[in-house]
Every structure is written in C-alpha cells, then in structure tokens.
Amino acid sequence: MSWKNDQVSEKETKRILELAQKCLSVSGDYVEMGCYKGDTSLLLADIIRNVGKKLWIYDSFEGLPEKSEADESVLGINFKGGELLVTKREVKQRFLKAGLPVPVIKKAWFSDLTLEDLPGQIAFAFLDGDFYESIRDSIKLVAPKMSEDGVMIVHDYTNPALPGVKKAVDEWRQGKYSRFEVVLL
Ligand SMILES: C[S@@+](CC[C@H](N)C(=O)[O-])C[C@H]1O[C@@H](n2cnc3c(N)ncnc32)[C@H](O)[C@@H]1O
Q1: Residue of 6, 31, 36 with the most ligand 1 atoms within 8 Å of its CB, for mutation
Q2: Nearby residues of 3 by Cβ (< 8 Å), 6 or more positions away
Q3: Which of 23, 56, 100, 158 has its CA 20 to 30 A from that of 43?
C-alpha cells in the first residue's frame, strides 16, 4: 500500500499506522472523520482486513465547510469552503480497485450526524476535519464511543495554518483526564 497523501505527511502517516496497528487488540471499530480522497482510509482498511473490525469513514463529499472566526489565519488562506471536494463514488471505487473491503461511507456534515451514525464502540479514530467546528463536532461524536485503551488522533493540532483545531481540542480537554489516549499530530 502506498502512503502517498497530499494532506498528511509521510512521518504523520507512519505514526497513524503504528497507532492503528496497536489498536488491533482494542475492542471496537475504526473511524475516520474527514476522509477526503481516502488515502489514509485505504491504509487503515488494509490494516484491519481479516480481523473482524469495520472501518467507518465520514465526509461531506462537498469539500470543506465555511470557516468560522476561530479558523482565521494568514497562513491558512488556501483552506476555503468548497476546497477538497471529491465524490463518495470516487472514494468507493478506490477501495474496489484496491481489492479492499468497502468501508461504511457516510456522506454528511458532521454537525448533522448523531451518535447513532457512529459504531457502538471505537478502538481507533482519526479526526481530520481541518476547522474548529469540524473538530469540535467530531470529538462530540467520537469521544463518548471510544474504548478504554483506544486511540483518538487529531490531525493539524500544531498546524499554524489551522488554528481552530487546537482551539477545539483545548476547549474539550480543559486539562481533564480522558479514558483513552489522545494523540495530537
Ligand atoms: C484534510 S481533508 C482529510 C484528509 C484525509 N483524512 C486523509 O488522510 O487523506 C479534510 C476533509 O474533511 C472534510 N470535512 C471538513 N469539515 C467537515 C464537516 N464539518 N463535515 C463533513 N466533512 C468535513 C472535507 O470535506 C475534507 O474532505
């Protein structure tokens, strides 16, 4: 499987895959909030094939939403509403072409999802929605379903072009202990 991805660096991908491997022994399914073209999703699907776990991936498939004030940054000028648009069909086709099991693919704005749209239990989650509200809403859906010993990764926490990510995570954590591991990339 190739790690080629224009959204996640090779180093970050390696770390994501190490953590995904580690979670194979944790009960629950795998989730990606903001799958875009499915580059990371394909790698995750490969890791969990034949272990009885399912991959659930979520995206608007309409590109990024509009930014909120919390996302404003001179460095992030290229992250705009409507950017990063792919269709659900294109993503599904990539799994079929790669001979991998097609994940549960949900097309929705994260703010329109409810807990019922997520698996009952989550072993591993990769949150990659770029913006404040997207990360805030993803955490709201994923955190209550995380297994103890599971891993929730939030991408772009340290990315100065996407300051809303850090704000959403920090507001949620507020120095609280969490039952599961939180990895900030
Ligand atoms: C950086 S890309 C994801 C890259 C992908 N995780 C990967 O590893 O290749 C961000 C994706 O999140 C989706 N997204 C961002 N905010 C969203 C929201 N509030 N609801 C639904 N999708 C959202 C965008 O449509 C986009 O496809």
Answers
A1: 36
A2: 10, 13, 14, 17, 39, 43
A3: 158
